[in-house]
Amino acid sequence: MTWLASADPLFAHGVSFAVLLIVVVKVIAAFSLLMTSVIFMIWFERKAISDMQSRIGPQRWGPFGLLQTLADGLKLILKEDLVPSEADRVVFKLAPFLVLLPAVITFGLVPIGGTLTIAGHFVQLQVANPPMGILLLLAMSGISVYGVMLAGWSSGSKYPLLSSVRASAQMISYEAALGMTIVTVVLVTGSLSVHDIVNSQGGGIWHWNLVRLGVVPFVVFVIAITAELNRPPFDVVEAESELVGGFHTEYSSFRFAIFFLAEYMNTITMSAIIVTLFLGGPAGWIPNVAHLRWLFPIAWFMLKTIGFAFCYIWFRASLPRFRYDQLMDLGWKRLIPLSLGWMLIVAGFVIGKGWGFIMAALVLLSYSVLARSFELGQSREVGPDSVLPVVGERPLRPESLRQVTDEEDG
Amino acid sequence: MIGVTYAVPAVLVFVTSALLIVVGALGVIAVKNPVHAALCLIMTLFGVAVAFVAQSADFLAAVQIIVYAGAIVVLFLFVIMFLGVDRRDHVNFEPLVGQRAFAGVGVVLTVGGLITLMARSHWVTGAMSVTTHLSSSQGNVKALGTAVFTTYLFAFEATAALLVIAVVGAVLLARRERPSQPQEVNA
User: Fold this and answer.
1) Is A174 in CB contact (< 8 Å) with chain B?
2) Could you state, in order of their start, the residue ranges of all structural domains in chain A?
3) What are A273-284's pLDDT values in tens digits?
4) Which single residue of A42, A96, B79, B137 has CA 20 to 30 Å from B97?
5) Contact assignment for A382 to B180 by CB distance below 8 Å
6) pLDDT at A324 over 90
7) HSE of A117, CA atoms in CB hemisphere, 13 A
8) Is domain B7-87 classified as CATH 1.20.120.1200?
9) Other C-beta atoms within 10 Å of B125: how many?
């Protein structure tokens, strides 16, 4: 059982009933924290946006309209649950849960405070600290594509299908930049474990990865994660003006509610992940108050996370949506080279200052080559000479091809 | 493995992962809809990841999910959606002459070979880890990294070069512009 203890010091003295109870309580607490914060996040978003647009926003249910989300949720659950006749029934019903699951699992990685001592057990305020650590975030963000993609495909309708094709291309594109910025964080920490990443940023604001890595990986990470979330300005997946509603056009009732729940859960989780990776997580000034010292890391963590949640709302209220080709250009031509180059420079500086400067020079050189090649590609003459001849033949014989197409037409 | 006793949790994990792998793999060939087949493939990949975790190969498990489930199967699905494969399939249609016969021979050869290997060699279903148990709080990322960047550096770089060549080749083949008048082109 040593591997259990390496993942969580709670299991250092073996597995007992008390330890299991603490684990169960931790899981339930994290889940209910996430659910309640979703309710407040939706209210916060609606209120903040209406303030920015000089409107009043929700105000009828509860003080300041706080219960509006509950009322909306109740209304959605009471609606009729429709499945379109053209839909692929199994996948159609499965897809919303595939969106929800990664959001919940990723939140389990985030340390929301320091450590507590409950009945002699040393408890980390983190649901799980697996040895694969932050790689789990990448795995889950890879999985979260499926929910959106399958929801769109299984609806059996053209706008959701367009949306799901967009979603898969967009999420794959931005995952590369996301992974590379996480590598820079792992490089300076020297560990994959989220707990170690947070601990290594503990010594004041100059040790935060935001400052320590230069600001570039932070900026790349925020942009890439916003694209992964399909939040504005990267919400081409849900572009109302082009796609009716996007991948959830055909959904109704509870399943529709789950999509929105998952979207806001993801927003909160990703704000928390940004705080964990770049802003020291629960690190912050702790006044010397007896018995309440454990409360301050939690408060700092919440404060930083709410800050980023507000940033997402701010983006939505102030930035226009990207066009699809601009989105792809930004991902492939700007963010990936930038994060790759910065990763090499950070790796150089981890070894030594000299290597760092050599790497920086090399990266600058390759950037100029890249910029030149982009320029050449843009100004290339397009004419009959640049068209390549057809290579090889199609694998199907012409008569059998005709057979296939005739069958489909008839 | 005579004389070795297994703990109950280990057996449970093994059974779960084996079921995921086998049921998923059978689903891939049995299911008619290509999208459902891709979903079954994801199930298999998850089973393999669980098996990796059970053998404390955390990094491999994570990479399995990130690369295969998170990228490659997404691309499969992307292509399936892009080409608009509808639900009417052409199962009875043979594009290559005699492909069924070849497939049958292939299946017999593979299964026969596997059974022979399992019957004759000890390493196929041997010990949990080949040398020693990699006991480290960091999983085995460090050991893996050291091996890849020292002992197997050449193979690693060769694979990288191969992938780059494949990408360049694919771009070159796919990039086929329509012949058009130069004044219509706005860069």
Assistant:
1) no
2) 2-372
3) 888 888 887 877
4) B79
5) yes
6) no
7) 4
8) yes
9) 9
